[in-house]
Amino acid sequence: MKKYSSLIIFFCFMYLGAYAQLNINLLASLDWEQNCNDVWGYYDGNREYALVGTRTGLSIVEVTDPSTPNELFFTPGYTSTWRDIKTWQHYAYVVNETQGGVHIVDLSSLPSTIDTSAWIGGLWQGDSIAIESAHNIFIDENGFAYIIGGDAFGVLIVDISTNPTNPSIVGHYTEHYVHDVFVRGDTMWTAEIYNGTFSVVDINDKANPTVLASQETPHSFTHNIWLSDDGNYAFTTDEISGAYITAYDVSDINDIQETDRFQSSPGEMITPHNAFFLNNFLVNSYYSDGVVVLDATYPNLLVEVGNYKTSNEGMGCWGVYPYLPSGIVLATDMVDGLSVLGVDYVQAAYLDGLVLNADNGQAVFNAELTIAGLNTSFSGLMGDFFMGTPYSGEVLLTVGAYGYETQNITVTLNNGTITTVGTINLVPIPSFTVNIQLLDAFTLETVNDAVIELDSSSPDIEKTYFSSDATGNVGLVLFSNTDNYTLTVGKWGYKTTQITDLYFNETTGTYVVYLEKGYYDDFYFDYSWTVDGTATTGFFERAIPNGVSFAGEAANPYLDDPLDYGNYCYVTGNGESTGDNVGGGVTRLTSPFFDLSTYNNPTISYERWVFFQGSSNDTMQVLLSDGSTSKVVETIVNGDEFESLWHKNTLLVSDYFETFTNNMQLIVTVGDAPSMAHIVEGGLDVFEVNDAATPEVLLFSNNNTGCAPLNVQFEATATNNPISWSWIFEGGTVINATNNLQEVWFDTPGVYTVSLVVTNAYGETTEVYNDYVTVLDPPTAISITVSDEISEVCVGDSIVLNAQNTPDGSTYTWSEGTAINPTASSVTVNPNEGDNIYTLTVNSNGCITTISTTILGITAPSLNLSGNPTSLCLGDSITLNAVCNSMVYWYNDEASLVGQGNSITVNPSTTTNYTAVAGSQCNTSGTINIAVYDVPDFTLQGNLPDIILAGYEDTYIYVVLSDNSDNYSFNWQGEYISSYNSNTVIIDAPYEAVGNTYTYTLTLTHLVTGCSSSQSITLAVELYDGIQQIGSLQSLEAYPNPSTGLFTIDLSTNFIPTTIKVYNTLGQQINEHYSETSVNQATIDLSEQGIGLYYAVLYNAQQRYTIKLLRK
Length: 1112
Description:
The chain is an all-beta fold.
């Protein structure tokens, strides 16, 4: 069953909340009780049709009148989610992804009938090719159909021009799986979805398609492709969430260049489906965003100029067809069916210019430019920009960049015109400098030549790298409009440190970073490991690893160690497949020199992985050198544990060398054994040197002197891989503890000692810090009193807060809403709505005490009575509405409660005041005056009671009013009204109305109050001839009636006519008769008259009677 909705219904939905739209309006829609898929159009010269694919077949809908789409036929097919339709001459070709082949529909006899047939394959080069299913179909201008995907795999080329219902196969493209194609002339453009590319294929010889060029698309899931009319540009979609519609310059297929990308609803991960080119516009279907129209006049600037959301469901618009002669656009929504759309193809208004630094004239790269808060673009390397918007007129252009003041410019734009704003000079924001100082965590000596990476949570700020100078310092120039920062610091010979959630401002000054000595490299920074070897491919490289597989199994861990900083490691031949593995020899990775001469018992650890193919005899080796001798510390061969996974290995240097030198090195080799040609890959990460000795310990604290209760945060550092921390805090209570980090409260004044025992695998170190913490005695018994001892107050009133029990000489600081003397012991405050927390800080001899009190500010409810009626007519009722965030109580003039709630219905009999009151402790009220007006009181009378005389000009109805006011409007309703004035209507009934009754209604409306009432009168129509018409006579009848000509009338004994006259329906007399043969019977002959209705009027001197006669 189909469902139809017209434009009128659409506007009703608009009131309830219509789908989003820009320059596109819904003309009509048609829905089915099953999902729809693709759509195509067909026209035969003067009629237009939508060919709609559904889950179970093809619907043929006439849209010649776009406001009333009409389904003419539904031709069933095999059930399939996918169905695609194209047309050639008067045939439609339909494919699906289940079975049934190509469904062919002959449309030549529309709108009367259709004929269907099927084609399920044929012979190609001596082999039979069966086509039960396909994903898409395309038909070019020369009558060749391209059956795509499914059983065709690539593209099956079929000649339908010779025999449209039994075509022949003329070519088969099988280079890649193809999802969709576009063909013009002898060139086929293929969307190769799983290959992530589109290809340009020469099909001049259709039996031998030849690939001329290929181009990867941005999201490597190429769904469809379409060409501009001049053939110089191609447009693709990737069917991936958040993917782009992408434009390419293909004028030289040997140098295809991407020109622009468009993403619908950025950040919402919307999926594009199909794009079609029409007169420099792209008409596109999106699953979630519906129909989106892009201006592609300038293919280097795709601008959204139209949209219509066909559904609010997640999977919405599947197909769109913009090529009907009328210009309407057909769109199919999977959930909501067919939408017939009117599109206003509005060319964008364009804007270009240059963004420069106002101080030095240099280009500002990546400046953000926004038109009216809607369209955003960014400046290029030279500060240039070119952008567009669908809107014209005066708009606000906002220009901003990191480190610059934002600038607003008013620009007048015109659709179809490039407006040049010239140069925009951005004023740099005053900066401040933060000094980063690097210190050795044990010796407190400065650390120079360390690498510092500064990162920000702001997307506008790129990562920046610095190097500490000879004094261990580096100055960072920052701006006040930045977000929080992350500092990562490293140097060969120290352990990498990363500090997050740092906030800097003008008062920061110097920020100290302590670096712990030791060798650690997770390859976050490049410490210049050297790579050499004899291999021809697959050398070690520092990179973010690409995950690859071989023979269906993972050939590497797909990522570096997830627990280290960053994503880098060393990996052999970091390609997207195992094709660039180590080949033809050995690749060797060698560390920088490291000094172990001061270590007691050094250990070395590293993480590695290796992949071997099958029965490979390839190897990975790890060696350690003291500068003169290299010794193998690990050899990994095929079949060893942890193949293709990260594996940590730790070695004791003393197992290989008795003397620890200052020029030690780690060497890693991956070798491809000669003649075997097996695949071998490897990787290295997280190199670290530690000392197998007891820890060295340092203690830090944020503050070890202050007033009770004193909060102290302790941080201890230790070398040589500590495994446990044992703290003793004399006089303190630990409230938060994590190994080397302790947060401790000291509640009682005094001087206290801190002890710490740190252990590792080789023993323990005990440190005692005597008299480390000093706790002073703070002021006590301080309180806050409130005037009138209240805790709640209406907003707008003030209260006084008093500090009590403070020591002599104390100073005061009040915060949060103080009005008078914020440094005095008493202050006057004006609470705001809600909880108002007033904090008092008392400083006595350097000891700080802070207390708070909370005052609840109560706001009288807001009450809005606007928009209510102010009058009504007697007997009516009205609803009074209050907009309020509290319960509303309604009272009348007598102060009686008449209702409660935001709405009440009343029907007063006299003019009444209604008062609404909201709130209790703090309330608000308002009054509405309702005037009550009388309704008109009147009756209707006819000058001829109960009848109208046909042919009698003086029949009328008049009004009898209960008052003599002239303030009324008169609205008469009824048949045969010839004229009327305010209170009288004249009725001129024709002869054919004789025998019928008619009702006449007058609606009387008071011109001042608008109150109205209606009265009716019913009158019968009789024929007027100056003689009184008598009522019903049961004995008078004509027979046979109807008759072919002769009618006999039985006459009543109490009514003997002297004359019988016969009239036609125009009131013309056509016969006069009187019979003397019998007083009880009369015969009327209408044989010579035409077929129709006649009136026989029987007269005597005093009366008349009318009988209807039907001549058949």
